[in-house]
Specification:
single chain; alpha+beta; 12 helices; 54% helix
Length: 371
């Protein structure tokens, strides 16, 4: 059991905040790699076999079939021509091969003859100084895994989500790798889901910031709101996050609950931990979506309230201005027999009455909250 406990220690170092870990993602293919094959190695008794020069997939598989062990091949965005030879060598199902080459697949787990085909969506948090209506919050990629009795093939799409660091950590613990391809599958699943947790924490910070701006008091203690476009953009990015997490619930449940020939029983127990983490992140993302709906509705309601307040103020001042307008209109008709037009004090009296009426209207409207 101590060996199995080490499995968590091998993968858990990858759970770090994406805001601080600049090495969590490999944005380019290795310049020294002339093809889509990023790495190809044979593992026997949990140790990587050292060779004088890099092995081709054909050479690696021939060595495994002769001496035992398993081969782990990593590819980055292979073309159909580049992948067809590997697919033929390992007997991969044409439908799975088509999905792996074309990418843009939904997270899933499928069984083809003597292999498992698993699709993971990787999520990367995009740093930004300020959230705007055009900000990209999350960036997605894909990792497809072919798990066989004596081989493990990863096909990666997107500029992030490198598995190089994970491979090195696994190679540092031969006892884990001795469990075979299923140990690698668990490590990748845990690595991807740990990325979800870190991204969820970062997105939570963005949502908290927007929520604070919406409900923070503005002038005269009224909520000042925020740009609805920013909220809507954040909601779109959360939806992208949801599309990566939600479909993964069922595959992780199957890997943790259903006995499979290609999954070591000791390793299968730890898929339950991954399934729990996926369920937790799924609940977070659902909560994000509902919270953003509430924030958006509150922001729109505040905009409507602000418009109503503006209209009330305009109407109030129009009512006040109507009094002098009426008086001036009456005394501007130039009739000879207007009341008090020849009285010495008529002008100050009329102006005083007008000002008094305006002040009375202003005080009444202010007391009723219109001004």
């Amino acid at each position: 059991m101590s060996m199995i406990r080490d499995l968590r220690a091998v993968v858990r170092p990858s759970r770090v905040s994406l805001r601080k870990d600049s090495g969590a993602y490999d944005t380019t293919r290795d310049p020294a790699t002339p093809s889509a094959v990023v790495d190809c190695a044979v593992y026997r008794d949990g140790r990587r076999l050292q060779t004088d020069k890099p092995l081709t997939p054909h050479q690696a598989m021939r060595q495994v079939r002769r001496d035992g062990g398993f081969v782990w091949i990593g590819l980055h965005e292979p073309t159909e021509a580049e992948f067809s030879g590997i697919a033929g060598e390992f007997g991969l199902h044409p439908l799975a091969v088509e999905d792996a080459v074309q990418a843009h697949q939904r997270p899933k787990l499928e069984r083809y003859d003597d292999s498992l085909f698993t699709v993971f969506k990787t999520i990367h948090y995009v740093e930004h100084d300020e959230l705007t209506a055009n900000s990209e919050v999350v960036e997605t990629g894909e990792v497809m895994c072919f798990t066989g009795r004596d081989f493990f093939i990863t096909v990666r799409h997107g500029g992030q989500g490198s598995l190089r660091a994970l491979r090195h950590r696994l190679q540092d613990d031969p006892e884990l790798l001795a469990k075979g391809p299923s140990a690698v599958l668990h490590a990748i699943a845990d690595h991807v889901v740990d990325g979800y947790i870190a991204v969820a924490d970062a997105v939570q910070d963005d949502i908290d910031e927007v929520e604070t701006e919406v409900f923070s008091p503005g002038r005269k203690g009224t909520p000042r709101g925020t740009d609805a476009g920013r909220i809507y953009q954040l909601k779109r990015e959360v939806l992208e996050f949801k599309r990566a997490v939600s479909p993964l619930l069922r595959p992780m449940q199957l890997l943790s609950e259903r006995p499979m020939r290609l999954i070591d029983p000791d390793i299968q127990k730890y898929f339950r931990d991954v399934a729990d983490h996926v369920a937790r992140v799924h609940e977070q993302v659902i909560g994000f979506d509902e919270l953003l709906n509430s924030i958006l509705q509150a922001n729109l309601a505040q905009a409507s309230v602000a418009q109503n307040e503006d209209m009330r103020k305009i109407t109030s001042w129009a009512a006040i201005i109507a009094v002098p307008t009426m008086v001036c209109g009456v005394y501007g008709m130039n009739f000879d027999y207007m009341p008090e037009t020849h009285w010495k004090y008529s002008y100050p009296v009329i102006m005083g009455i007008t000002v008094g009426i305006c002040l009375g209207i202003h005080r009444t409207l202010k007391r009723n909250g219109w001004l």
